[in-house]
Design brief:
By secondary structure, this protein is mainly α. It contains 2 helices and 2 strands. It has a two-stranded antiparallel sheet with strand order 1-2. A hairpin with a 5-residue loop joins β1 and β2.
Length: 126
């Protein structure tokens, strides 16, 4: 394990063999970009990617909501709630999973319908 030395041969981290290195002071100019193996305690000053970050966040939320809805719809389709013993919990789960299943079913029907329309449009022989 490598020692991390500060000025005066103080170590940080686990106990290790203490060596006496020559302490050198090296200062980088503030405007110089940092190398990949350096640590900077300055805050991120450049905030030009904020619109892109918001778009990624919204897309992530939409994808996550779609996955959750699809999972709950599949749980209803496979009658997962029927295997539960508690009647109250069965009713609660069914109330949640049934609308998700209906939404997934309608989405699938619409997707297939419009896919076939586009496919037929390109496959028409003139």
């Amino acid at each position: 394990m490598n020692n991390i030395y500060f000025q005066g041969s103080e170590t940080a981290g686990s106990v290790a063999k203490i060596m006496q290195p020559q302490a050198k002071r090296y200062e980088k100019p503030v405007d110089q970009t940092l190398q990949s193996d350096t640590v900077s305690f300055r805050g991120n000053i450049d905030k030009s990617d904020s619109a892109e970050s918001i778009g990624k966040t919204i897309a992530g939320i939409v994808i996550l909501a779609g996955l959750i809805t699809g999972g709950l719809g599949y749980a209803h389709k496979s009658n997962w709630a029927e295997k539960l013993k508690s009647e109250k919990f069965k009713k609660f789960i069914t109330k949640i999973t049934e609308p998700c299943y209906n939404l997934c079913h309608k989405t699938k029907e619409a997707t297939v319908k419009y896919y076939n329309k586009v496919k037929n449009l390109f496959n028409k022989k003139s």
